[in-house]
Amino acid sequence: MKLFNSQSIILLFSSLVFLTGSVQAIDLNPFDDENEEVIWEVSTNVYLKYAEQDDSEFGKNDHPVELNEEEIRKALKLLVIQGEVYTEQEEEPNPVFTPLQVNILSKHLAKGLAKAQPDQDIIFALKKNKDRFLGLKKATFFLAGRVFYKDGKLNIILGDYDFAKQEGYEAVYDPTHVGIVAYHFNYGKRSKASQKFEFPIKEVDGIELKDGKRRDWFVIDLKTAAKTYDVQVSQREKDELEGKRKELREILGEDAISGRSAKEQAQINKERREMRAEMARMRKEMKEMSGGKTSGSQSVEERLSTLDRLKKKGLVSDKEYQRKRQEILNDI
Fold first, then answer.
1. For all residues of the chain together, what is the average pLDDT?
2. Dist CA 152 CA 208 (whole Å)
3. Higher pLDDT, 177 or 319
4. Beta-carbon-side half-sphere exposure of residue 106 (alpha carbons within 13 Å)
5. Rounded to the nearest 5°, which phi and psi values hold at 106?
6. 3-state SS, residue 37
7. HEC assignment per residue over 313-330
8. What is the 8-class DSSP label of residue 23?
9. What residue spans define the domains of the chain?
10. Nearest-angstrom CA–CA distance, 285 and 276
11. Strands 139-150 and 120-130
12. 64 prior amide bond cis, ω within 30
C-alpha cells in the first residue's frame, strides 16, 4: 500500500512538471501579487488596470488626460491586419480588436486615462472566442497589452496575442470554474518588441508604427484617425449604394432607378420616337436639297421653301443657308 502511494505521488509530480512546462506562467493564487488598481474587471484574466511604467527611460506620460471615447473607438477600428482572408471569394478586414474589445477599450481607456498618473500605464487583458472546425465548441484566446498617452498621441503596445486558453490545465485545477487560475500575461515593453504580434498593419492617416518598424507598438493621432475612419465609412456607404443601384438596373431596368411612373415613361418614349422621326425627315430634306434625288423630283421653289423652313427652325446657319440657296439657284 505504501509502495502504491509512493508511485502515485511520483506520477502526480511528473504530470505537474509536464503541465507547468507546457503552458505560459500560471498562478493558482492570483491575489498574492495583484496589487494594481483595477479600472474594470469581469474575471481573473479579463480586465484593465493601472500599473507602473515598464521603463522610466522613455520619460513620464502626459497623464492625466481627457480623451474622446468616440475618437478612441474609431481609431481602434482602423487597426486592421493585412493579408488575412476570411472567405474564398474576397479579402475581408481582419481587425486587431474584435467589436466587443473595441467597445470595452474605448470606454475604459477614456475613463482610466483621465485619472492616470504620469508614471502609470494602463495594462489590459481581454479574450475572444473563435470557431473551431466541424462545429466543435468555440476556442478561447487572450490578448494583452499596455496603453499610455504621450506627446499628444495615444500609444498601444501589444504583448500576448491569440494566446490560447489552457483548458486542460484549468479543468484539473479549477474544475468548478471559480477563477483561481490566473495567467501571467506579457503586456508588451517599450524597450523590446513582442514576438507574439508581428503582423503587418494597414497604414492609414493618423496611425503609425513606433520608429516606423515596431509592429507591436501603435502611435495614434486620435483626431486624424477619427477623420480617416469617417472618410472610409462614407466611401464604403457610397460604394454600397452604387452597388445596389447597379443590381436594380440589371434586374428592373434604368427606369426603376429614376423613379418614373409608367405614364411618364410612355410620354418620354413617345417624344423620343417623334424626335427620331423628325431628324430622319430633316436628313431626307437636306439630301434632296443637295441633289440626292433624281432631276425633276422637286422643283426649285420647293427646294427653296424647304431651305427657308430649315433656317427658321435654326437647323442651318446663315452661311449654310446662303451656300445652299446659291446651289439651288445655279440649277435654274
1. 80
2. 14
3. 319
4. 20
5. -60, -40
6. coil
7. CCCCCHHHHHHHHHHHHH
8. S
9. 21-222, 260-330
10. 14
11. antiparallel
12. yes
Dump the DSSP string for 207-261: EEEETTTEEEEEEE-HHHHHHHHHHHHHHHHHHHHHHHHHHHHHHH-HHHHHT--
Q: Is 307 helix (H, G, I), strand (E, B) or coil?
A: helix
Q: What are phi and psi of 86, to 5 degrees?
A: -90, -30
C-alpha closest to that of 199 among 93, 57, 50, 127: 93
pLDDT band at residue 147 using 50, 70 and 90 as cut-offs? very high
> Given the C-alpha cell 495567467, which residue does it identify?
183
Contacts of 64 (CB under 8 A, 6+ apart): 113, 114, 115, 116, 117
Which tens digits make up the pLDDT trace of 25-39?
555 444 444 456 999
For residue 155, list its beta bridge partners: 148, 219
Nearest Cα neighbor of 45 from 216, 183, 149 is 183
> Residue 290: which pLDDT band, with cuts at 50, 70 and 90?
low
215 Cβ contact list (under 8 Å, min separation 6): 193, 197, 198, 199, 200, 201, 209
- Residue bearing the bigger pLDDT, 132 or 211: 211
What DSSP letter does each residue of 81-138 carry, written as one string? ETT--SSSSS---EESS-HHHHHHHHHHHHHHHTT--TTEEEEEEEEEEE--GGGPPP
Q: pTM for the whole thing?
A: 0.66
Cα end-to-end span (Å), the chain = 140
CA atoms of 44 and 46, how far apart (whole Å): 6
For residue 43, list its beta bridge partners: 46
Measured CA to CA, the distance from residue 40 to residue 299 in angstroms comes to 100
pLDDT at res. 85:
41
Residue 185, Cβ density class (10 Å: 0-12 exposed, 13-18 middle, ≥19 buried): buried
Q: How far is CA 111 from CA 73, 107, 126, in A?
A: 13, 6, 17
